[in-house]
Specification:
Nucleotidyltransferase, domain 5, 31% helix, binds zinc ion, 26 strands, 23% strand, eight-stranded mixed beta sheet
Length: 561
């Protein structure tokens, strides 16, 4: 018994002494964190030397634009533990969704505690999924969407994992949790998605650091970058010669052996590439640095990018850790200029109802945005309604939320609009009241998920305020696609914000699980917004309204309203 106690005492003293010198997060991780597969044992930087600095960067803001499997998430987890254990401060760890947060909590944090006896004893209660407490401090694990509750907790360390998947508004909310703290750190990591968005936007304002190391042959400081550092062998994804591909020094051309990576990368350092006197440290790491991904695998993936836009995006985002935008993914200001014709928003109004097919789309908000559009039948029209009409934008307006409903009503009458579609939020009741007033000529709408279909599902018709549920990607792409196919014209005095909002929409792909039960993710087309986008939505709602407009022209209705 005494013997056991002595051992315990000795262990406690030893552990206390170790703890005393664990002043850096990287040293702390090597000592305290145990890992499972694929590199079981104490946490090590051997295969991920770039992560040492990510552990130890305590500038107010740090962001990492990362490829998959770069071990960056483990750095985030270690920082969270270190902050709780050594700095005795609270941590908020944010993931894109509540579901992702609870999965992550169980699989990553849970596994870390299971494997690391030191960590396990640190926490007093580990049963709760979204909150873990040490004696004095708390780790909050929250989703940026859903029942997120990012409001109530003040913390000094904010970690955002997969920043590009989180809603920008929710990030702002999370950042407010840092205010009022003496020590505060914002730390965000993400696979980048599109340029000037999310993590890439942060990176552009940062020190833009690259991981440089001495070439084992010539000794010069180099980095691994695509395609300069790669000798590509093979000419298609399935070509067996791909595996003969290798990395080379960009200075002397010497081959850099994959197996030697731990040796030549171990002395690597992060080097800023812009002389920014910035509070923001930005790191970028790609899969060329990976010990587990071979140059052959990377080259094979690259050769597969020519067959598919999805593969191209995946290669840039997940392999190179770079943002990517496909050709034609955005409407350019130039395309909008080409749509301008010589008429103004003050052009003639209809003389009588039903003489012209005019619809209105309205996007609510602090500033409500309204697009009035006329639909001009084309010859050889087929069955598809959108394909049977060209769009002539008649007017674009913005109104404050106190006046939008009155002004919208006036526009209905002024333009004798046959149908109006208004987004349901934020003022659903006011939108419904408007629809009832123009019974049979207006509906509220909501976007639904990501299954591309043109079907409009209509509910609540009997209330006089029908609710249309539509596919976001399909309808945005139908409406905005008109600029590419030259099926839309706009007045010469179109306000600048219309241009800006339309150009802010970017067509891209996202990997999602379509169903909770799915194990595989599928790539689906989505629109991501780079900024304000109200006019783009108002135009889209006007297009949807075309599909709901009552037949016109053949019979004289007199004034509809
Ligand atoms: Zn060299």
């Amino acid at each position: 018994m005494r013997h056991k106690l002595e051992i315990l005492l000795a262990k406690t003293i030893a552990s206390g002494l170790t703890g005393h010198r664990l002043t850096s997060c990287s040293k702390w991780a090597e000592e305290r964190r145990m890992m499972g597969e694929p590199f079981p044992g104490p946490y090590s930087f051997k295969f991920f030397p770039w992560n040492r600095e990510l552990h130890n960067s305590w500038s107010p803001y740090s962001v990492c634009m990362k490829s998959a499997q770069a071990g960056v998430t483990e750095s985030a987890i270690n920082r969270a533990f270190f902050t709780l254990d050594k700095l005795k401060r609270d941590v908020l760890y944010v993931l894109p969704t509540a579901l992702a947060a609870s999965d992550f909590s169980k699989s990553r944090f849970g596994a870390a505690l299971e494997l690391s006896p030191y960590l396990k004893q640190l926490f007093v209660d580990t049963n709760a999924v979204n909150i873990k407490r040490t004696g004095a401090n708390t780790l909050y694990i929250r989703g940026a969407r859903g029942r997120s509750n990012l409001k109530s907790v003040p913390v000094s360390e904010l970690i955002i994992d997969e920043l590009d998947e989180c809603e920008p508004d929710k990030i702002k909310l999370a950042m407010e949790r840092l205010s009022g703290q003496i020590h505060k750190h914002f730390w965000a990591i993400s696979t980048p998605t599109i340029p000037e968005f999310g993590v890439h936007k942060w990176y552009l304002d940062s020190t833009q650091e690259k991981f440089c190391f001495a070439c084992p042959s010539c000794g010069k400081q180099i980095e691994l970058k695509w395609p300069e550092s790669v000798v590509i062998v093979g000419d298609r994804a399935a070509d067996p010669r791909c595996k003969e591909s290798y990395y080379k020094c960009t200075e002397c051309g010497a081959k850099l052996n994959q197996e030697d990576k731990p040796n030549f990368l171990k002395s690597g350092i992060w080097v800023p590439t812009v002389a920014a006197n910035s509070d923001i440290r930005g790191f970028h790491i790609n899969q060329l640095y990976s010990f587990t991904i071979t140059p052959g695998e990377l080259v094979s993936d690259y050769l597969g990018t020519f067959s598919s836009e999805v593969n191209a995006k995946e290669f840039h985002n997940s392999k190179l850790g770079l943002p990517y935008i496909g050709s034609g993914a955005r409407i350019t200001p130039d395309l909008i200029d080409q749509a301008v014709r010589d008429y103004s928003m003050g052009s003639a109004r209809p003389r009588r109802a039903g003489e012209r097919l005019i619809t209105i789309g309205a996007d609510q908000g602090k500033l409500g945005t309204v697009v009035v559009a006329e639909w001009l039948p084309v010859r050889n029209a087929g069955k598809d309604i959108s394909a049977s009409f060209d769009c002539k934008v008649l007017a674009v307006h913005r109104f404050g939320d106190e006046e939008i409903w009155d002004r919208l009503g006036e526009l209905m009458i002024e333009w004798q609009a046959l149908y109006a579609v208004i987004d349901a939020d934020p003022e659903l009741n006011l939108a419904r009241a408007f629809c009832k007033k123009f019974d049979g000529h207006a509906a509220v709408t909501r976007y639904r998920g990501v299954k591309a279909t043109k079907e409009i599902s209509e509910t609540e018709r009997e209330t006089g305020a029908p609710m249309l549920t539509v596919d976001r990607t399909f309808w945005l792409s139908t409406a905005l696609g008109r600029f590419k196919t030259k099926r839309i014209i706009v007045p010469k005095d179109t306000p600048d914000y219309f241009r800006e909002h339309v150009c802010n929409m970017v067509h891209t792909y996202k990997r999602i699980k379509e169903d909770k039960r799915d194990t595989e993710e599928t790539a689906v087309a989505v629109y991501v917004s780079l900024g304000e986008d109200h006019a783009a939505h108002a135009l889209t709602y006007a297009e949807i309204a075309l599909h709901r407009a009552p037949s016109f022209g053949s019979h004289s209705l007199g004034k509809i309203f």
